[in-house]
Amino acid sequence: MKNTENITTSKKDGRLKRLLKSRKAKKGTLAVAILAVFIAIIVLVNFIAHILVERFPNLQFDMTASQTYQLQKDTRDYITQLDKDITIYVLATENTFKSGMNAYSGSQYFVQADKLLHKMAASSDHVKLEFIDLSANPTFTGKYKNVDWNSQDAGNLIIVDAGEKYTALTLKDCFTYDEETYSYYGYYSYTATSIEQAVVTGILDVTIANKVGVDFITGSGEEEELYSSMKNLLKQNAYEVREVNLTTKNLNESSQIAVLFAPTVDLSEKAVDKLESWLENDGEKGKTLIYLPIDVKTETPNLDALLKQYGMEVSDGLCFCTNNNYYLQNVYMFLAEYNNDSYTSELKNASIPTIVYNSRNIILKDESKAQSLLNLTKSVGVLPFDTDTSKFESDKDLEKFMTADGVNLAAVGSKTNADDKGSKIAVFGSPYMFAQTFLGTTSYNNANYLVNFCNTVSNREDMGVTINSAAVDGGELGVTNSSTTVAVGLIFIVLIPLGVLIIGLILYIRRRNK
């Protein structure tokens, strides 16, 4: 019996040896070895890529259609030119921050914010990012005595520290959330992040020595909701923005720009006197008033007299355009053409147009004093406010109101002293061109044009930065929350290599059995 077992075992060992020495086995072994090396390389590449992205966030490839996880060009340009050391302190652990700070919904915006902050720090040796757990570091707040640590207004989230100067950014500064949900239920439901523009504004705040002052004039029926977007844009670009009621106060002597945004009533003679005195500046000039007339018929003789001194007049009616190459939703909303190189030479992309809606025509009464800024010359006209349009059947009814010389949608007038120093009044015919609808998009140049204009008239030497909020589109390919981060990691580090292994084994077995 033993001899039979030994013979059987010997036969099996012989077959195994022959199999291992066979050509088929050698090929199969080589295939498995190649497959194993290939899988090892994939895992190693993924591991190295993960380490490199953690160390150098700007190496991360953003596959979202709108580049949701990339810094905007203005931010990158500004950060790379910094020559002062900045520390961005996030007042939470990184895991807590990325998980949404106990958000009811919208935690993906914190993942987006985390990536943007890391890319800011990676863009300059002068920028450092740190996450601070206040419960583990209770003495941290003692360094920042000017911060209201007891504030309940959406809480302090970030400290931007430049050494001698610092500023605090709240949750409300950095994220947009549903106010009603929070008011009724006490939960944060986030809808967008504005952390990029908030942090850039914070850096500007702590690095600019002397800010340019901008006074928004109130007291003449101006709607804060309408001008708040313009005010916020200038704040984001480190202008010192204030509101001044001319019925009770004077404009600040230190301010270089004043804004009169769509007053519904005429300024009083006393208020106009205050404006004239401010523009005169004791003979030194150097001031600029930005005036945006309202888009309805309003009697403003006092304002009209002031504009006349600067060579301009505002039309009694709204501009229209019937050329479908320029107008968008209707004949009163259309693209404007730039008409003055002095205020466009520093635009980052002058090929992007500005857009106006319900604009007045700015008539140049004295071209030795006034110049056009924005205009349109083809298929345009001015429809008087008292026109009865109820009988109009088509856009052809507008033809009799067309003007051969075109329309001026913005203009600037100047008055100079003996030393050729001047003060200016700039009239933009459409208050809506600086409303959020047009300032909050990169499709039009309205935001960039406004910032560039203010930089030019105030002779700002520092670079203006225009940052728009970025949204996360759930339909795009991209990492949008912490669970997705894990999922993407499993796909590229585990599932893909495992899939390759399984396919390789199937191919080997099929070849083995042939």
Q: Biggest β-sheet, characterized? A: 9 strands, mixed
What CATH architecture label of the largest domain applies? 3-Layer(aba) Sandwich
Q: Between the first and last Cα atoms, what is the distance in angstroms?
A: 36 Å
Helix percent band: 25-40%
Question: How would you characterize the overall build of this protein?
Answer:
The model is unreliable at 61-67 and 470-482 (pLDDT under 50). The protein has 514 residues and is an alpha/beta fold. Helix 2 (23-55) runs antiparallel to helix 14. The protein has helices at residues 2-21, 23-55, 73-80, 94-98, 108-122, 171-174, 179-185, 195-207, 224-236, 269-280, 301-309, 436-439, 446-457, 482-512, and strands spanning 86-90, 127-131, 156-161, 166-170, 175-177, 190-193, 213-218, 240-245, 255-261, 288-292, 312-314, 317-321, 333-338, 354-357, 362-364, 370-376, 380-384, 407-416, 422-428. The two termini are 36 Å apart. The chain has three domains: 2-59 and 490-512, no CATH class; 73-202, 3-Layer(aba) Sandwich (Glutaredoxin); 209-457, 3-Layer(aba) Sandwich (Rossmann fold), CATH 3.40.50. A hairpin with a 4-residue loop joins strand 3 (156-161) and strand 4. It contains 14 helices and 19 strands. It is 36% helix and 20% strand. The strands form five sheets. The chain has a nine-stranded mixed sheet, covered by helices on one side. A four-stranded mixed sheet has the order 2-1-3-4. It has a two-stranded antiparallel sheet with strand order 5-6.
